[in-house]
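Recap from last week: sequence in, structure out.
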Amino acid sequence: MATRHPLACTLVLAMAAMLHASVAAQAQPSPGYYPSSMVRPMAFSEGYDNLWGPQHQTLSQDHKALTLWMDRSSGSGFKSKRSYRNGYFGASIKVQPGYTAGVNTAFYLSNNELYPGNHDEIDMELLGTVPGEPYTLQTNVYVRGTGDGARLVGREMRFHLWFDPAADYHHYAILWNPDEIVFLVDDVPVRRYARSAAAGAAFPDREMWAYGSIWDASGWATDGGRYKADYRYQPFVARFQGFRVAGCEAAAPASCRPVPASPAGAGLSAQQRGAMRWAQQRSMVYYYCQDQSKDRTLYPEC
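Predicted structure tokens:
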């Protein structure tokens, strides 16, 4: 009968402990607060209408799932039936695997039709890629025209997510209230953009609609525009389901209360902050405040 050397056993145990720690470090942490569970899912037609490219979208028989696609002729988009002055806006999205460079699958808030040339916008965009490279989730905030004209003043934070967005549905949400904007992925806060004295007027506070779309953003979406949409791989498909909307419509009375960002109401809890720190340390690949090429006079909050 063979005997086990104590040192060998120690090494095996140490390696097992290191593997366990590595797996634990990669596991998605619990944020302890799940705003998606507070908002009931709705049928697409209950909250949204087609905006453009109707021939490039199909609705499931139960009206709960929408498929958009883009080919050489067009993409497609939808828009909420109502405008809001704050709220929680979420959708479960699954994107296409393979070559998707240049393709932008977006879920966002905007009032560009009401304020052309001077609009506000809050973005969550899944930017396509080339085989072997991950999708990029881009979050962004434009305020009062900073997303209009030749000189854009974007406030981007980008992520290579801890999962493959093409493998399954994941829930992407924007929680926008008078004090802050929280970007959530499966209820994990990945970014918080707060109203602050330093930011001054750089916070969106006018009514907005919720939108979703798939479109050709070849000029910038993948590696700064290095890789373009290749229509040999068309159609490019994006699937949406689990639509959730809650908040104060533009015409709601002053007594209407925003959806709370945390159990305490405003701000994030310690557990939510820990989950956000994990997401940013593990997955963030770009933050505008760390970009030395930016003109800092345009970003007082940095």
